[in-house]
């Protein structure tokens, strides 16, 4: 018996020593765990929660067809950016564009748009049958606390045929930091000078009025529980939960109900505005006809250089495959796909990404993604070798 | 253990602890490690949060604690609304929970027949086992609408203009809702401790009081309660400590607005809530650091409250043993 106890205690001792000394290192473990048990290359990504459903579908289909396993953690955009800065992930994801301050810490990081999202206004007005019509000025007025009653003349003027009940307006916003809030406040500061000077835009802002609720489901819960409430949620969520959605007047003066097509239209004609492959553009209040005005794209964050060529190749090929071949998944899950033009611009932007000590280009610079998208040219066969960390022509001591 | 004969017996039964006994040495070392690891962990947490919070302390100084503006866009951070929300919601919760819990404990120890006391005590303790998010959901769907339509709207309509704490508009999601949820959550803790100290009141004290002609009421109020008072205060402060740190449930009902309002019907915000809400998406070094400083303040407040409670509980335990 005493021997057993001693053995156990020795084990415990070792364990606690291990806990005490090691295991707190926060680097991503580039070394031993690059492959999993089945010999696949394991990629880790982290970031935005909004595109998580589409990413997880893409990644699971891709890993069925390729020797790659992708571990994506939807910890939020801010977390994704932080992890990119700390270098603990292979790629990041964010809804809000990288700020200059962030870019200084991870110079050259590419923001690659993947899908479009929209933010819709949902409300609780008992007895209202038709969709409510709003414009930017009114929405800003409501969330600034300047429009307090539903029978405000400005609201009535836009909804002449609708029987609007006489109630207090209870604005509900996200209390947790969120890309959804970023897009919504970005829209408000574009359409309302008062909003721009008094509040501004961000993942979390100083709300002048209203209630804060956690997550899309929290906002929905509070709106449903409070007659007279109005809140903003992400379009996919609103659609899945069949929430009432307001029609919003766009820059052309049309009242647009939120839809997938109307969201895609928001990114039309944007290609000319992209300078130096910088996709961090705001697409709210888009000028295109039929465009829904509160829209944004969500990004993958890709480092301009990968030390490990098989890793870099795997990520870039994955993005090419997702953008060019998987549009049906996007529509299936109620996201809005990017226009083809933008997708090709995004892939072209990644032609500058290098890998290995000799900084080899991963994509062939002559590669014609447009032809690949039209199916005229098959994508080149790319070998992703999960077992040897390849570093281009000459590897770091690893014999091939 | 105080009995020397016991010590002798133990010494004869256990193998002698000679220096050569390697297993014993290991055993002692392992236990020492366990013992030391907890204070070390504590120190590690304080140091880590402290270093992370340092940039914010440098940037804002004491203004961080007295500042009322929390604006991540302008990188302006003042924690007072959160400190106010945390302290006020917790103290209000204690004001609701304390009389209820003490009344419940007196009923269970002094008055209730055994067949009733056992199930009531069990049900109360069951409240402690409900996950906080379930309280939050119940708060959103049951408590908040009820508060809004049956309490807040009539009160603010009739007294709102005269009494500032009843001032409208009544949203339901409010400081009041937060305090009520918290009070329900801390009742099992306070009532359990109170019951414990009431049963620890020596039987001869009670009998002496009764023998002197005291009624049951007088015995409870003039003998049992004063005897148990430090323990009850300790229990109350343990409950307060729990209320200060509660996150999920209160976040779901308090309305999350960083304002300092006199009205109970106005939304508020707590330190734990702002951490849970904003940490995941906070970008920028100063923003993160400001959140860390809030964590440090919350940590400090809860530690002080808990030390205070521990001291009171020790005091009553010592008296009970005398």
Structural description of this entry:
- The complex is a heterodimer of chains A (400) and B (322).
- Chain A has 400 residues and is α/β, with parallel strands linked by helices.
- Chain A has 2 domains: 2-117 and 297-373, D-Maltodextrin-Binding Protein, domain 2 (3-Layer(aba) Sandwich); 122-295, 3-Layer(aba) Sandwich (D-Maltodextrin-Binding Protein, domain 2), CATH 3.40.190.
- Helix content of chain A is 36%, strand content 17%.
- Chain A contains 15 helices and 15 strands.
- Chain A has helices at 2-21, 52-65, 77-86, 100-105, 136-144, 153-158, 179-191, 193-198, 215-225, 235-240, 260-265, 309-325, 327-332, 340-349, 369-374; strands at residues 41-47, 68-73, 91-94, 110-123, 133-134, 170-174, 211-213, 229-234, 247-249, 255-256, 295-302, 305-306, 336-337, 354-355, 360-361.
- In chain A, the strands form 3 sheets. In chain A, strands 1, 2, 3, 4, 6, 7, 8, 11 and 13 form a 9-stranded mixed sheet that branches. Chain A has a 3-stranded mixed sheet with strand order 5-9-10.
- In chain A, helix 2 (52-65) links the parallel strand 1 (41-47) and strand 2 (68-73).
- In chain A, helix 5 crosses helix 7 and helix 12 packs antiparallel against helix 14.
- Chain A is elongated.
- Residues 11-32 and 391-400 of chain A have low confidence and may be disordered.
- Chain B is mainly alpha-helical and 322 residues long.
- Chain B has one domain: MetI-like (MetI-like fold, Orthogonal Bundle), CATH 1.10.3720.
- Chain B is 75% helix and 1% strand.
- Chain B contains 12 helices and 2 strands, in the order αααββααααααααα.
- In chain B, helix 7 crosses helix 9 and helix 9 packs antiparallel against helix 12.
- Chain B is flat, with a radius of gyration of 25 Å.
- Chain B starts with a helix and ends with a helix.
- Residues 1-5 of chain B have low confidence and may be disordered.
- At the A-B interface, helix 1, helix 3, strand 7 and helix 9 of A face helix 2, strand 1, helix 6 and helix 11 of B.
């Amino acid at each position: 018996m005493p021997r057993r106890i001693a053995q156990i205690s020795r084990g415990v001792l070792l364990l606690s020593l291990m806990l005490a000394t090691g295991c707190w290192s926060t680097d991503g473990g580039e070394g031993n765990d690059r492959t999993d048990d089945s010999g696949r290359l394991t990629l880790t990504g982290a970031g935005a929660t909004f595109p998580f459903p589409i990413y997880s579908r893409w990644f699971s289909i891709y890993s069925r067809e390729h020797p790659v396993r992708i571990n994506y953690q939807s910890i939020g955009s801010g977390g994704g950016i932080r992890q990119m800065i700390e270098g603990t992930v292979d790629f990041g994801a964010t809804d809000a564009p990288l700020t200059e301050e962030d870019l200084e810490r991870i110079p050259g990081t590419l923001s690659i748009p993947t899908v479009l999202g929209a933010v819709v206004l949902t409300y609780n007005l008992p007895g209202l049958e038709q969709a409510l019509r709003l414009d930017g000025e009114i929405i800003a007025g409501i969330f600034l606390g300047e429009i307090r009653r539903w029978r405000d003349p400005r609201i009535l003027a836009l909804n002449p045929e609708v029987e609007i009940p006489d109630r207090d307006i209870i604005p509900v916003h996200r209390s947790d930091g969120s890309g959804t809030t970023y897009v919504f406040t970005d829209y408000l500061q574009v359409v309302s000078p008062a909003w721009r000077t008094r509040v501004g835009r961000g993942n979390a802002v100083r709300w002048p009025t209203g209630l804060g609720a956690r997550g899309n489901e929290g906002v929905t819960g509070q709106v449903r529980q409070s007659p007279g409430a109005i809140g903003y949620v992400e379009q996919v969520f609103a659609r899945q939960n069949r929430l009432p959605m307001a029609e919003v007047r766009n820059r052309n003066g049309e009242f647009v109900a939120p839809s997938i097509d109307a969201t895609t239209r928001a990114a039309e004609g944007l290609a000319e505005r992209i300078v130096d492959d910088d996709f961090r553009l705001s697409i709210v209040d888009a000028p295109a006809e039929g465009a829904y005005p509160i829209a944004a794209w969500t990004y993958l964050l890709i480092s301009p250089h990968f030390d490990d060529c098989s890793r870099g190749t795997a990520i870039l090929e994955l993005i090419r495959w997702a953008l060019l071949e998987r549009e049906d998944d996007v529509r299936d899950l109620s996201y809005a796909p990017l226009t083809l033009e933008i997708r090709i611009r995004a892939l072209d932007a990644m032609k500058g990404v290098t890998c290995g000590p000799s900084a080899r280009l991963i994509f062939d610079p002559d590669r014609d993604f447009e032809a690949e998208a039209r199916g005229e040219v098959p994508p080149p066969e790319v070998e992703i070798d999960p077992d040897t960390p390849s570093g281009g022509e000459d590897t770091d001591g690893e014999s091939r | 253990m105080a009995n020397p004969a016991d010590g002798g017996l133990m010494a004869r039964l256990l193998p002698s602890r000679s220096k050569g006994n390697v297993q014993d040495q290991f055993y002692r070392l392992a236990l020492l490690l366990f013992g030391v690891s907890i204070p070390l962990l504590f120190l590690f947490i304080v140091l880590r949060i402290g270093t992370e919070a340092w940039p914010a302390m440098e940037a804002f100084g004491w203004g961080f604690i007295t500042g009322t503006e929390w604006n991540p866009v302008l990188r302006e951070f003042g924690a007072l609304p959160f400190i106010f929300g945390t302290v006020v919601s917790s103290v209000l919760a204690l004001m609701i929970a304390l009389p209820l819990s003490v009344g419940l404990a007196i009923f269970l120890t002094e008055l209730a027949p055994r067949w009733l006391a056992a199930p009531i005590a069990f049900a109360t303790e069951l409240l402690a086992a409900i996950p906080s998010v379930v309280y939050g959901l119940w708060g959103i769907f049951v408590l908040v609408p009820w508060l809004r339509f049956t309490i807040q709207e009539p009160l603010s309509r009739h007294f709102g203009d005269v009494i500032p704490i009843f001032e409208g508009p009544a949203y339901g999601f409010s400081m009041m809702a937060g305090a009520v949820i918290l009070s329900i959550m801390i009742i099992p803790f306070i009532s359990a401790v109170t019951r414990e100290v009431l049963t620890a009141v020596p039987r001869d004290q009670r009998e002496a009081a009764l023998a002197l002609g005291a009624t049951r009421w007088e015995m409870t109020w003039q003998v049992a309660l004063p005897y148990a008072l430090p323990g009850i205060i300790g229990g109350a402060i343990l409950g307060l400590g729990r209320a200060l740190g509660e996150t999920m449930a209160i976040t779901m009902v308090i309305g999350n607005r960083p304002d300092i309002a006199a009205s109970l019907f106005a939304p508020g915000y707590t330190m734990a809530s702002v951490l849970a809400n904003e940490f995941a998406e906070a970008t920028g070094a100063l923003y993160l650091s400001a959140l860390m400083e809030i964590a440090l303040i919350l940590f400090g407040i809860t530690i002080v409250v808990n030390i205070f409670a521990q001291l009171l509980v020790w005091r009553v335990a010592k008296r009970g043993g005398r």
